[in-house]
Design the sequence.
DNA sequence: TTATTACTCACTCAAATGAGGGATTGACAC
DNA sequence: GTGTCAATCCCTCATTTGAGTGAGTAATAA
């Protein structure tokens, strides 16, 4: 145990000086958020494992932490023995997660194909080609339909997605995992 | 224990008939792959929890399983007690994962920002606006530069990304996690 | 039967785009 | 002090695109 702090403002230098094997990081702290804290620690010393240890099971915060490089995510309700297990596990190269968190993480892989904009199957075909970078002309050739029909489909897709251009449609489709 | 099968060809009907709480699913089986097996079970009865139980720790297979809806992923080297724990955990709404798997899953969140195409910081700014669906004119306004400069940046970006249109650039940028 | 919907095709027009050319400035490296 | 490069700006041209409007057919639902 090399230290204990009530904020992570000096996380970079502390990490450089003490070279900890494991850091337990809270999210809600005075000053800098623990989400940035993860980043500081990881940038200062990538080998250091960071376990988020917090009350939050908020989706947005969770994914920000994971994207920032956290190696584990335990809720504060975790019994002490499980916390020790988690620390051992992260040293051994694992990624301890509270059950609820693990479920959220896996769920994030399964968000695919919502189609909440009610695109027809033909429209989905067209959208997929559009995402591949095809022009209206190429889409028409690929689907053996006329140029104007392809454009017609595109216009309908834009309407359903509430966008005004192919670029926006691609951004929305990829961003919201529509296809 | 309602059944045990050496393939998952009839997974749909079996699931409908026996309504299992939990399914342990292997990947490598005669006939249909367990990756499709997950899908069959989940489509037949979404409430049924599926734990992958296999020797594979292959990245590609892992992510296919997760995307297909698996609720857990335990390696066959898992000690029996941990396997029982995992079954309890999945029933309680958790997602049991072997440490190696958990680590791979978390790593998949951290693949961001490669910039293997050596975009300048200004070009990244422009690309981010492009992805938001901005036109050249809007990008120019947003960055307080002239219309032609914005177009100039866009052309350079397209060259670096080896694409010929904004749509392709967006697809590539989002697909390869460049930004 | 009537409506609705998906899919198909056509035409027009103004605006945006991609591709080509060239030019200046300032910073930084060798 | 020469060279490189990012960033800025300008011009032209053919093509593509988005938006508007209309219309025919086939399948499905009310």
Sequence:
């Amino acid at each position: 145990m090399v230290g204990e702090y009530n904020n992570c403002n000096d996380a970079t230098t502390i990490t450089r000086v003490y070279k900890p094997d494991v850091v337990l990081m809270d999210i809600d702290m005075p000053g800098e958020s623990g989400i940035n804290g993860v980043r500081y620690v990881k940038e200062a010393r990538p080998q250091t494992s960071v376990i988020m240890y917090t009350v939050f099971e908020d989706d947005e915060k969770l994914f920000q932490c994971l994207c920032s490089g956290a190696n584990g995510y335990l809720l504060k309700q975790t019994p002490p023995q499980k916390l020790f297990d988690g620390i051992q596990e992260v040293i051994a190269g694992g990624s301890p997660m509270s059950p609820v968190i693990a479920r959220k993480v896996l769920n994030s892989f399964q968000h695919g194909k919502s189609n909440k904009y009610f695109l027809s199957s033909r429209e989905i075909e067209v959208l997929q080609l559009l995402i591949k970078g095809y022009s209206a002309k190429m889409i028409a050739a690929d689907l053996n339909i006329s140029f104007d029909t392809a454009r017609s489909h595109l216009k309908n897709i834009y309407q359903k997605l509430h966008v005004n251009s192919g670029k926006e449609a691609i951004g929305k489709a990829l961003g919201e995992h529509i296809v």
About this structure: The radius of gyration of chain B is 23 Å. Residues 135-137, 151, 154-155, 158, 164-166 of chain B lie near DNA strand C (CB under 10 Å from a C1'). The mean pLDDT of chain B is 88. The domain at 121-175 of chain B is CATH 1.10.10.10 (Arc Repressor Mutant, subunit A).
